[in-house]
Amino acid sequence: MLRPPLAEHRLRRLADGRVRLELKHPWSDGTTYLLFEPVEFLEKLAALTPRPEINLVLYHGALAPPARWRAEVVAYRRTERDQATDLRAGAAGAPRPRYWTWALLMRRAFDLDVLRCPRCAGRMQRIATIDDPAVIQKILAHLGLPGAREGPRPALPLTAAGAEQPTLPGVSV
Question: Is 0.70 surpassed by the pTM of this model?
Answer without folding.
Answer: no
